[in-house]
């Protein structure tokens, strides 16, 4: 009980007192004392660390007591007050644009499969935009965290430009790349399986900014490290927890929601047409529904054989997204006959469905 009080009192008197709450600072204090230096700058820094430390202590108590209140009055998903504790991981060269300063911060107690836990095995420093794309790619590939087959996601500017499954990492990557190899140039690749030598050889054929995977075989590392500029990131793949928050900064505040779990049970799906999908179409509809969750709205995905054929993203009208998805498939001469379509929201008009149907799509999954 007296500890925080004594620490605060000592920190207030930092002009005369060294007050230490981090064992990592013991050596620094001893060095200054042995050298007989003034130590004023160190004492000021240590005092700041004390107040930061005791503030976290008080916040933990407040959060504990809030949970007791919620337990008595029913669980409150979003408490009236939220305190964020962030530690700087590294300064970044610049932000989203070259004239913006930036840094990367980690949440206290961040999940072990989130970006602060990643290990960079090769390549130059990650940029602000790299980190945004890594987050988008790993979130998308987490939809297949427990999938027995290999899954590959290729992301450019926060949006997938190709997703596919395969019997191994190499096949999954080559199939994902087939969707849109032009957009994939300089992209970010995320896999749900370890990268072996065969996959590494395929990945090395294309200019990529970042490769993210749960592991890299030694032979794969040797091959990929020959490419000086490619960044290799080791990060486990798992589905986000139900209690994780997704926070979006707005000017003067924060919007907070539950993080979308990339799990999509189909037990509530309803067939609303006279013809029910075939088994193969059901498989592709489930695949496309996972893909469209990662695509920016208005989002349309065309897929067949658990491979994306065309992706339309971020358009102001849904019919334009449908047309772009068809156009993208045509650019790569990908046959859309027998393809399925996934839309992240309902179709307000029939034109978007007709655009895909004319190109060969035979089944649609959408919210209703």
Describe the structure.
The protein has helices at residues 2-12, 26-35, 40-73, 128-141, 169-179, 181-184, 197-203, 218-224, 279-292, 318-331, 351-359, and strands at 86-92, 102-107, 119-122, 150-156, 159-166, 187-191, 208-213, 231-234, 245-250, 253-258, 300-303, 308-312, 340-343, 363-365. The chain is of the alpha+beta class. A 6-stranded mixed beta sheet has the order 3-8-7-6-4-5, with helices on both faces. A 4-stranded mixed beta sheet has the order 12-11-13-14, with helices on both faces. Strands 1-2 form a two-stranded antiparallel ribbon. The longest helix is centred in the first third of the chain and has 34 residues, at 40-73. The protein is elongated and about 80 Å long.
Key features of this structure:
alpha+beta, 14 strands, six-stranded mixed β-sheet, 37% helix, 368 residues, single chain, four-stranded mixed β-sheet
> Strands of the largest sheet, in order across it?
3-8-7-6-4-5
The tally of strands reads 14
Secondary-structure-derived class? alpha+beta
**Could you give a short account of the major beta sheet?**
6 strands, mixed
Number of helices: 11
Oligomer: single chain
Fraction in beta strands? 15-25%
**Alpha-carbon distance between the termini?**
57 Å
Order of helices and strands: HHHEEEHEEHHEHEHEEEHEEHEHE
How large, in whole angstroms, is the Cα Rg? 25 Å
Helix share, percent = 25-40%
Low-confidence stretches: none
Question: What is the 3D form?
Answer: elongated
Mean pLDDT: 91
């Amino acid at each position: 009980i007296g500890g925080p009080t004594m620490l605060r009192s000592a920190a207030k008197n930092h002009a005369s007192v060294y007050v230490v709450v981090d064992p990592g600072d013991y050596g620094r204090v001893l060095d200054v004392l042995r050298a007989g230096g003034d130590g004023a700058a160190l004492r000021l820094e240590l005092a700041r660390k004390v107040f930061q430390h005791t503030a976290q202590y008080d916040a933990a108590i407040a959060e504990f007591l809030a949970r007791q209140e919620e337990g008595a009055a029913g669980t409150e998903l979003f408490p009236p007050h939220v305190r964020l504790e962030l530690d700087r991981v590294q300064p970044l060269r610049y932000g989203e644009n070259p004239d913006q300063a930036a840094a990367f911060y980690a949440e206290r107690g961040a999940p072990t499969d989130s970006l602060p836990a990643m290990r960079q095995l090769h390549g130059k420093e990650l940029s602000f935009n790299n980190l945004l794309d890594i987050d988008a790619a790993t979130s998308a590939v987490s939809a297949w965290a427990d999938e027995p087959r290999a899954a590959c996601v290729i992301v450019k500017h926060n949006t997938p430009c190709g997703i596919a499954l395969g019997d191994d990492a190499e096949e999954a990557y080559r199939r994902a790349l087939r969707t849109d190899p032009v957009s994939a140039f300089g992209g970010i690749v995320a896999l749900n399986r370890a990268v072996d030598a065969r996959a590494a050889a395929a990945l090395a054929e294309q200019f990529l900014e970042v490769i993210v995977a749960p592991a890299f075989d030694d032979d794969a590392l040797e091959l990929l490290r020959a490419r000086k500029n490619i960044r290799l990131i080791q990060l486990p793949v798992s589905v986000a927890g139900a209690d994780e928050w997704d926070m979006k900064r707005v000017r003067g505040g924060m919007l907070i929601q539950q993080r979308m779990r990339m799990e999509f049970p189909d037990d509530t799906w309803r067939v609303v047409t006279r013809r029910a999908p075939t088994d193969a179409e059901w498989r592709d509809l489930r695949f496309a529904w996972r893909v469209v969750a990662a695509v920016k709205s208005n989002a349309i995905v065309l897929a067949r054989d658990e491979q994306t054929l065309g992706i339309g993203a971020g358009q102001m009208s849904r019919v334009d997204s449908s047309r772009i998805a068809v156009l993208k498939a045509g650019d790569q001469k990908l046959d859309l006959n027998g393809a399925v379509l996934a839309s992240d929201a309902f179709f307000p008009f029939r034109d978007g469905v007709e655009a895909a149907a004319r190109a060969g799509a035979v089944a649609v999954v959408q919210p209703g």
